[in-house]
């Protein structure tokens, strides 16, 4: 989880005050960016985020732990990947995407993006027809054999 201190964006000469961002907002930005990478099935959640999702409340920051150490930002991202993807390629794409999105949206740079692959999710089996549970594929191809 993110620390309790707000992050102050760099002071600009044209600004009329300061801009502060709560670290949880950065976690949400990084979580949404991580899910958008091809090959990512979903983010790892906690028991609290799972219960919240049952009640219809999405937690876009789940699976992201942001550490703020002075001006140094480190993100730990915990993901499930699709079966068959290249783990190094997806991890490097995530690192690049997360850095770019955070820089684009907040002008902050991530010093480290650590990708933790928690698991691999296989493809789902094809759905069965509930009206014809015991049908063979051979019978469906040649219906005159049954006569």
- Named at the architecture level, the CATH assignment is 2-Layer Sandwich
What is the CATH topology assignment?
A: Alpha-Beta Plaits
Helix-strand string: EEHEHEEHEH
Overall pLDDT: 78
Radius of gyration: 22 Å
| Separation of the first and last Cα atoms | 66 Å
Q: Using DSSP, what is the number of strands?
A: 6
Low-pLDDT residue intervals, each spanning 5 or more residues = 46-52
Quick one: overall form? Answer: elongated
Helical proportion, percent range: 25-40%
CATH superfamily: Cation efflux protein, cytoplasmic domain
InterPro entries: Asp23
Family: Belongs to the asp23 family.
Biased composition (Acidic residues): 134-147
Pfam families: Asp23
Describe what this molecule looks like in 3D:
It contains four helices and six strands, in the order ββαβαββαβα. With 147 residues, the chain is of the alpha+beta class. The strands form two sheets. Strands 3, 4, 5 and 6 form a four-stranded mixed beta sheet that branches. Strand 5 (72-82), helix 3 and strand 6 form a beta-alpha-beta unit. Helix 1 packs across helix 3 (87-106). The longest helix has 20 residues, at 87-106. It is elongated.
